[in-house]
Amino acid sequence: MATGPDLAERTPRSFRIDEELSQILHSPTFQGSKQCQALLKYLVEKSLGGHEGDSSLKERTIGIEVFGRRHDYSTSDDAIVRARVGEVRKRLAQYYLSPEGKVSTIQIAIPHGTYRPTFAFRLEKDGESKDPAVKDPPVKDQPQAEPSHAADEFPEPVAAASVSRLRRPARWREWGIAAVAACAIVTVAWIGISKWTKSELSLFWAPFLESTKPVVIYMGTAELYVPAATSTEKSLSLLSPSELKQPMTEWPLAPLVEGRVLNSNDFLIDGRDFVGVGDIAAVVNVAAYLSAHHRNLNLRSGPNLPFEDLRGSPVILIGAGSNYWTLDIARDLPFFVDRGLRIHERDGQGRIWTTPLWSDHTIAEDYAIVARLLDSKTGAPVVILAGITMCGNRAAGEFLTDPVQLKKLGSIQRRAFEHKNIEIVLHTTLSNCTPTSMDVVAQRYW
After folding, report:
1. Is the pLDDT of residue 170 over 60?
2. pTM value surpassing 0.70
3. N or C, which terminus of the chain has less Cβ within 10 Å?
């Protein structure tokens, strides 16, 4: 028969811990948080396994294996493990104060200063233990079994031999419940304070930072009119043979002459991957912020991105008219881009925001939609940065990654940041397509 540490660890006691873990994970206290369920299950299973030592219960290892962080992520910058372990401690305390937790014969706890759970086995009120490993006091001179590794790690209560000794566990249970309640109060207060002190920037991006899946950043592409080959040949024919041999200083585009009539043969529609400078600037800002928080990114562009590539992953959509998925997902939002290239308010005052062009076709201001959807059709969080022009896209990217700018959303309730969809209309003044100021002119959350 096979023997050894692995067999010794699967004692009746460890099976009972598995049963208790299952009851905890399916309790109302834990069903509301998939991350807390996954973390507690991981910690208990690794602790029961034991053969990997403490290496699997280090903060970095937990961050990688449970929360999908990269192997080189900095635990000092990313406190996801410490924050979630604190929340698990709070939920465990709440569970053992609930009716189903009070009758449990096993108590799972995670002491402060460690990620290794402890397991306390309780005696029944009549002095009998449900733990098969706890027996009646042995007969004198009867040979004793050697203690197992599991017994060393999870010290078991000693069976009582008299009524007076039976009263001690009851008192210890009362003290233990009081201690757990005190810890729960402190933990709840600490979590409340930590949430209240979180910045608007952290609250806005929390669904993306907490997800274990790579973040998809998708830029749409624009179609352009480009000179046909015949137009380029005409421009080159104006140069002498010696001039043609010189290094290029500019694209050989013939100047438009007043009175010249252009037709469809002079231009072609180029549908290749043209991305505006403002779109790229927005991607750089967002990608830099997420990378600093050790999130894996999947950058996509092109006109034919299938929906399956978006399903189930956090998604950031850049651009309005050039991005099909922005128009599709945002069409039913309180603020949307209409066919007149304007931002339109669906209900309320029915306001409309448009970008005026100067006589030289430059713009001095722009508007953009910024939205965060928690319940999008993709099945995962979606952020939309959709300017009327690419300059608005650039402004939206700077706004969403600047903690000072996001303080302008301070009027939104903090609970809305955590649990609701948010959409705003952003106004920006520009200098050569560079944002010089930004203001929120409308906002909704639901």
Report:
1. no
2. no
3. N
